[in-house]
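Annotators were shown the component list below and the corresponding predicted structure, then asked to write short factual statements about the assembly.
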Amino acid sequence: MLAATLSSGWFLENAWLIPLIPAVGFVVIILFGKRLPQGGSEIGLGSMAASLAIAIGATVQWIQRVNSASADGEHALGGFFGFARAIVPSAAEEGGHTAVFIEPVVRSWTWWQSGGLEFGVGQHIDGLAIMLLLLVTFISLLVQIFSTEYVSGDRRYTHFFAALTLFSAGMLVMVLAENMIQLILGWEIMGLCSFMLIGHWWEETANSKAALKAFFTVRVGDVGLLVGTAVIFFGANDWAVERGSNGFSIRAISAWALSGEASNSVLFWGGVALFIAAIGKSGQFPLHTWLPDAMAGPTPVSSLLHSSTMVVAGVFLVARIYPVFFVGFDILDSAVNLITIIGGITIIAAAALAFVQDDIKKVLAYSTVSQLGYMMLGLGVGAWLPAVFHIFTHAFFKCALFLAAGSVSHSGSHHSFDMKKDMGGLARKMPITATTWMISTAALCGIPFFSGFFSKDEIIDNASHNGYQFFYWVGLIGAAMTAAYMTRATYLTFFGKARGAAAGEHHDEHADDHADDHADDAGHDDHGHDDHHDAHAGPHESPWRITAPLVILASLAIFSGYLNAPAVGTHWFTDWVEPAGVEVAVDGAATHSSDEEHALGFAAITAEEGGYSEGCGFTDPSEGTVCYAPKLSHAEFSWSKAAPSIILVAFGISASLWLSMGVFGDRRHPLKGLTSRSRIARRGHAFLVNKYYLDHLYEGIIVKAVAYPLARAAYWVNQNILDGIVNGVGRGGRSTGDWVYRNIDQRVVDGAVNASGLVANETGHALQPIQSGKVNQYGALLFGAATVGAIVLILVNI
Amino acid sequence: MYAVNFLILGAVLFSLGVFGVIARRNAVMVLMSIELILNAVNVNLIAFALMNDSAEGHVFALYVIAVAAAEVGVGLAMVLMIYRNRRSIALDELSVLKG
Amino acid sequence: MSAVLAADVNVAQNVGFYIIAAVMVYGAVRIVSTRNVVHAALWLVVVLGGVAAQYILAAAEFVAISQVMVYIGAVMVLFLFGIMLTRATIGAEDGLNNRGWGLGIPVALLLAGTMIWVIVDEYGGSVIESPDGPMPTTALSDVFLREGLVPFLALSFVLLAAAIGAIVLARKD
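Structure shown to annotators:
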């Protein structure tokens, strides 16, 4: 029964080298970088190039492997859970290709063991991992090339490349992680590098603040990652150990979630916790505030980390152990779930914020947040493949957009990122940058035949296909908004009248700039190449080390979409990346005959259109088999279904163009100065400019609401009860009067202060005595509260 | 030997340590009170190890002793630094956390 | 109360325990109430020595020896150095307590009451069998080098970090 094995190869078997090379590169740069002629950048570039070479080799071999599977249909493989194993042949035809589960290339070594539990480190290479390996190494290499020019002469040039290289290593470790522990390791390395790189120019307070904010906000989410991993581990471990694996293994978790033996509440709460981690890392709605601030880092960092690679880690996490979310959130059986809600809110909220930004990088940052929302939405509605495909296409065009913004600031606007002050009319001066920008914008907006169209439209289409009608409309509106704010940014940057630095004015002191822009000013001060910059006047095209990555990325922004363009009938990406949701025999020989019968029945059912009642993720896998991926169906593409989004995008572009020319152009226009004339418009504008007051909420209200009442209670106890007793004995009536006076005084002042939480800074002085800062009082509160908590627990239990 | 003996001794030492942490003003005294708390925990660990006749409790007690040594080292270093900077180790004068 | 009078209650052991415990509790009260920092440190020696004695009663000889060496040998010396280097008054001193020290009394009483209640509720009357002999050190090393290996290694890193941290903090620059 056992026919040919799936093809494998050296590159697939040794894909673990891909993260190892940059990791070693990092050590070399840190130790010897400063002494090298190129300051360590050659090591970074070399290690990324080597990783890319291996990643390309692995990709080619993976494609061969997929093809060998489709050719044979039946395979014997070694290795899963220690059993020999065969893949159940399935005749299920789906979109013209045979659904065969392609065995991932898994290798694992023991890292450490403790108390009978073994923690492994290894590789788990499947389509998703291959795609991201290729993507991360490729974009990292381009960004490092770009950086050699962009940060040349920086005083921490070597450290910059060290951190970039370590970041790549971390991301790659996470991408090919075989188990959750390894995934967390990579995840945290990325968090650390993100912190180092955002704060690269830490001499400016704004930068170090942004770095801290990013770090802490993501840490909030990381708590979810640890909790979720623990929850899933305790749920899955027994099941997995029976099958020779453990509850950290990603394959075991996937199989367990789909086995039907998993408790639904464990999956749900584990999924919620893990999704919180994804919210933090991928800048989803309530925790998205760090991402725009992270633009304080150098532009290559924004481009690599905060648009194309690191921030998709959250999306990757959800995609990686998708069965947990699929079953936990009942994705195909509901019309709404946590992922879609968060994704939907993020799409609209971030797109609205992008309208009021003057900083070109912030527009792109909010656009990234919004696009990540699309990816989450896609995963939430069961469109796994379109979401993953959107990661792929988005990485290219968003990276190109950021690098183009960097190119504009580098050579066009004298290190300013302010579109209203220092840009405009740059299209003629910087033709390559402008062209690549516009191609990427077209891809981002989802204009037909650019890559974004094929991925984003698939997500929107599948939302409706899987019964998420409301989110279909959310997606469509988001697409129109995307088109509109990108048109506004394009107009402001490249068309209209040249302003400020773009017109050749030099103003080294951006005294009136936003605090956020100081990042770039700081960089400006640090840049040694200022000298040769000031030698020429006015904007000009950037040198080749900047334009070459731009051109490569922009062409990919067009063509990457054709890997999976239903409009022209290609579905390579689907074949290569999507794991087939079919049952896989764990121990082939024993149950093989019955499997075949089952497979036949299975084929008959799936052959029906929309046969959503059976298969992995819907019914429990039969005896002796496991599922690794839920069975998902894809919406059929048709131009008539794509029409609404095309029309809305066209509407968004034209409306925005009309408005931009009216508001920012020279002509007098009824809309000009609307925000200064209309109260409603001004309030809306202020609401958006203040980012929905979320930062105020976090810093001004939540922190104070938690910290102040506690301190106030301690103070009250201290002042009134203790002092009252002491004084009361000695001073009788006078202390009573004192007590009343202080109490009323405190209360009145406090009442007034609390009513205006937003102006707490101004009135902070009145609150100062409350925040005593005395450790002993805090200690008393801590122990007292712990005791009271313990008593409550005892009473509840007894 | 009654089981409650060790446990109640531990509880009393712990509470006295907590009182010390709250009441004391001198940083060195607070560190001493923390030692009391740690020792109270250790007494409990040893008592439970005795009840279950297992070595794990002893091992944990040794961990706690090691951590306590580290804590005293760092804690006293901090106290010295504070003293050097402020000529005082009174904790209520250290209200940098004040808002 | 029959369990209380069970034959396997070793009276001598219990009496020894109570004597040591009384000294320890008195010492602990003195630590948190004395007005002399050096006296507090010396009372701490008494309490820590009492803890070591209790360990011996509880058949934990290795831990008892470690307690004596680490605490009474090393930690106490550190404390005395700390007291001297910060030039605390050697004699009695006012102002060792906070202004709000009274807050500690209800908190400590509440804490002690809760814990004692729970302990008596759960273990009241139960008797620990007298151990055959001290816990063999080989048993400890087995735990240390098998299940406890990772925490053991982690702990050595903690100690290293503490040593470096203490040097960095205390050095004059």
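Statements collected:
1. The CA atoms of residues 48 and 79 of chain B lie 35 Å apart.
2. Chain B has a mean pLDDT of 86.
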